[in-house]
Write a structure and sequence with these properties.
heterodimer, A: 166 residues, 7-stranded mixed β-sheet, 7 strands, 19% strand, globular, B: alpha/beta, Aconitase, domain 3, 2 domains, 5-stranded parallel β-sheet
Chain lengths: 166, 422
């Protein structure tokens, strides 16, 4: 699995999918949804986030509805990974399925807004580039890493069906 | 290897004799559910691209509940797509505007004891009331399920929630689960299954039990489960479905925690706006004013919820400053309420009855909130902006509490309205 690095946007505990993408935007397409991500807690985020940036949250990130537009919207806005102390389980699965790495790190609180971090997904390690500090993260089990490595569930299924049909 | 009921269901679905918590496994799915928002509009384009069909149309339930009735052309188009999908893939268990998916799964007996049930919605856990393992997922997970009949999961630890005794008059399953969420926080059950046991649970109706499993989503749990007992078996028998009680956890199964509650000590509570684990007894709340009252959703608009509201509203009138809206959780709930006068009582008190569906709860349907509006609602979540404007406020409470607040114009102990405090 690859290494990702980017600038950190820091959020708190229990960031809810109703806040990530409010229900009223769910009739819209992804580019429009991406313009509104997290506007409930940080109205400037969607405009200022840059491609490759990394979101860092606290406990239970992505709690709430099963809407997959939450990780898809964050991804479309530019996020390259999400680090959190813990994730809401459906949000965690949705991240894998859309190819946005969810990284569980018990020390996520030690990462600060604006720092640059690099994530080694294979071994489960986060390095705060500004300070050189290394933090342990949870490496994904192979069964799940396979889906993420394929770029998400759709690619994973495409390879599976292609393989069984030939 | 001693196992909890959740672990037993996973072992069976993965073709193993036993499983251990934290193992990651692929399992066979017995029942899959998706709705108009999470289903066809999201997965059909991928099915076309993959050039595959669905694994078993008879194991799929499709419900149009989020966008009914269509409020605009986009919503109408989503419903058209849903309908066409049901026809194209031969899904006979398709229900449009018949009720909320989670209510129908129980009402029609689709979920059965011991099943591994996966639904593309976070409140899929409601189905655990049938004694099955009911797991919510997102749309692309559902794409994997409907094309292969399989999904992966991590074997959860189980927390036993043991509730003994009887809830006092005027105190409901909603007050109990809100109290539990308030005690343990919205991440208190993260990745784990809550298994409900005890004499208070045994004495509850299926509809009240389903409030407990429904709101397991709000404590971060993987699911909630009430192992099938005589009440479950009788519910299924009334639908012409034969089933046995169980599966049950082994007597010496290992739980990650046991939460004990004495039902007699539970009192009417609400969750304060923006944080559904900010739970306080109504008696300690002051009397915040509300201008909206909403009885709706899979949590709080089943027949028994409408009947509770009617108990409060009988012979009373909704305050002139409050708009009370009722969106029944299913057509059957409304029909039952019409057959015994419950619906008439609600209407006579001044309630506005809306169509069945998810309605204003997810901020999608009719009846949503403007900036500055304050609602008390029988729904399950109140994150900022959930039911409309980010500057609206939502208190979560029982049907009794919502109806009492609608009459008083402010939040008030509902027991005073049903003679329970005398």
């Amino acid at each position: 699995m690859s290494t990702i690095d980017g600038k950190v946007w820091k959020f708190g505990d229990n960031i809810d999918t109703d806040v990530i993408v409010p229900g009223k935007y769910l009739v819209h397409d992804l580019p429009e949804i991406a313009k509104h991500v997290l506007e409930g807690v940080r109205p400037e985020f969607a405009e200022q986030v840059r491609s490759g940036d990394i979101i860092v949250g606290g406990s239970n990130f992505g709690t709430g509805s099963s809407r997959e537009m939450a990780p898809r919207g964050l991804q479309a806005a530019g996020a390259s990974a999400i680090i959190a102390r813990s994730f809401a389980r459906i949000f965690f699965r949705n991240c894998i399925n859309v190819g946005l790495p969810p990284v569980e790190c018990a020390d996520a609180d030690l990462i600060e807004e604006g720092q640059r971090v690099s994530i080694d997904l294979g071994v489960g390690k986060i390095t705060v580039i500004d300070t050189g500090r290394e933090l342990d993260a949870v490496a994904l089990p192979d069964e799940i890493g396979e889906i993420l490595n394929a770029g998400g569930m759709e690619n994973y299924l495409a390879a599976k069906f292609h393989r069984t049909s030939t | 290897m001693k196992m909890t009921v959740a672990q037993k269901i996973i072992a069976r679905a993965s073709g193993r004799d036993s499983v251990q918590p934290d193992e990651v496994l692929w399992v066979d799915v017995d029942l899959a559910m998706m709705h108009d928002s999470s289903g066809p509009r999201r997965i059909w384009p991928a099915l076309v691209k993959l050039d595959v069909g669905v694994w078993d149309p008879d194991r799929i339930v499709l419900v149009a509940d989020h966008y009914v009735p269509a409020a605009d052309v986009q919503a109408a188009t989503i419903l058209t797509t849903t309908r066409k999908f049901a026809a194209a893939f031969g899904i006979e268990r398709f229900h449009e505007a018949q009720g909320i998916a989670h209510t129908l799964i129980v009402e029609k007996g689709y979920a059965r004891p011991g099943m591994l049930y996966v639904g593309a919605d976070s409140h899929t856990c409601t189905g655990g009331v049938m004694g099955c393992l009911a797991l919510g997922v997102g749309s692309t997970d559902m794409l994997g399920v409907v094309t292969t009949g399989r999904t992966w999961l991590r074997v959860p630890h189980t927390i036993r929630v043991n509730v003994e005794g009887r809830l006092p008059a005027g105190v409901t399953a909603k007050d109990l689960i809100l109290t539990i969420i308030g005690d343990h926080g919205m991440d208190g059950g993260l990745y784990q299954v809550l298994e409900f046991t005890g004499s208070a649970i045994a004495a509850m109706t299926m509809q009240e039990r389903s409030v407990l499993t429904n709101m397991c989503a709000e404590i971060g749990a993987k699911s909630g489960i009430v192992p099938a007992d005589a009440v479950t078996v009788a519910h299924l028998a009334a639908l012409g479905i034969e089933a046995d009680a169980g599966p049950f956890s082994d007597p010496d199964a290992e739980y990650s925690d046991v939460w004990n509650y004495d039902a007699a000590t539970i009192e009417p509570v609400v969750a304060r706006p923006n944080k559904h684990d900010d739970v306080v007894p109504i008696s300690a709340l002051g009397a915040p004013r509300v201008n909206r009252a909403y009885i709706g959703s899979c949590t709080g608009a089943k027949y028994e919820d409408l009947a509770m509201a009617a108990e409060v509203l009988k012979g009373r009138e909704v305050a002139a400053t409050v708009l009370l809206q009722v969106a029944p959780a299913s057509r059957a709930a409304l029909q039952q309420a019409m057959s015994d006068g419950t619906a008439q009582t609600l209407m006579e008190a001044g309630a506005h009855v809306l169509s069945t569906g998810c309605g204003a709860c997810p901020g999608i349907g009719t009846g949503i909130l403007a900036a500055g509006e304050v609602s008390i609602s029988t729904t399950n979540r109140n994150a900022r902006g959930r039911m409309g404007s980010p500057d609206s406020s939502v208190y979560l409470g029982s049907p009794y509490a919502v109806a009492a607040a609608a009459v008083a114009g402010h939040i008030v102990d509902p027991r005073d309205f049903i003679g329970a405090n005398s």
